[in-house]
Amino acid sequence: MTGKQRIPPRSGTAFELGKGQRLTVIDPEGAQVSDLLAYGLDDVREVISNGRTFDYEQTIKLTAGNTLWSNRSNGMLKIVEDTAGTHDFLLTPCSTATFKHFYPDKPVHRGCFGNLAEALSPWGIGEDDIPCAFNVFMNVPVDGSSGRLSVETPPSEAGDRVVFEALMDCVIGLTACSAYASNGGSFKPIDYRID
Amino acid sequence: MTGKQRIPPRSGTAFELGKGQRLTVIDPEGAQVSDLLAYGLDDVREVISNGRTFDYEQTIKLTAGNTLWSNRSNGMLKIVEDTAGTHDFLLTPCSTATFKHFYPDKPVHRGCFGNLAEALSPWGIGEDDIPCAFNVFMNVPVDGSSGRLSVETPPSEAGDRVVFEALMDCVIGLTACSAYASNGGSFKPIDYRID
Question: Which PANTHER family does the annotation name (chains A, B) (predicted)?
């Protein structure tokens, strides 16, 4: 147990999570998003995969009881507790390019993508190794009929948390999201704890 | 214009597609699926990304007028014609592991994943470089409310086609799908043409 850590607004971090350890991601103020990536510690070419997860879990809405799978069809993280219930696994982390595209009038930020790439670089993980993140607390409703999606303010409230149990030794990347749309326009921290 | 080529049932191929060239993928008998991958010819670490595409196109249902984007936020392929209208970009290619998982009583097949890895190996592309494919003609309805998805028989009819225009020089991987569920239980060829 490491005690609670804080990820400042618009930043990210990375750390190792051993098999059997639990990672708790907490939204301390509410309506904030945290992009989560997981790589195999033994070989970082193994990485969480939204496609494998959607296939094995037969849903795009992941919550307690669901597992996040790797590109090699191994379970990486199991969601063991979830007080929020709304997350996204469809979208890639916000980046310089997405800031220019979606917010042409606002200052460009390197976003979760740049924050993750820097935080993960000590493990030899680079920008091209970043897939779709599991976007904790992110609210991306999908119209099943038209396929249209939109990025809405997260319904998470202060203190909401998701607990992940590692099914293998992992390297984790984790952010406090930098984009305007994903967190209702305000930038807030994210807390986490390893037990 | 190369003339029409045939991909035999449960197999795959790969080829280069120059910027401005058009790839037509045809379902010659109906209700068959073709997994499509695209990599940057100049640097195969650039690859189609379902997450970037969902973000920029704001939909999970891609059809004529939509662009398939890369992990580096560049447009790779534009869909310029689509007589079928139903495709999937949520799921990863079927593989030895998915055969064991979904069809425990049936013979294991290396699936589109194995077929793509072999076909793409001359360009230095390996298994770990295979992301979610754009699954042409694949029918994966999603319940927007529950998030549940299912793999159903494709509604494509004999002769249905999708035309992609390359927005950069690409390496393309393309299959005639090997999985039972995705093509209604029968294995059929896929035709394609480059113009």
Answer: RE64534P
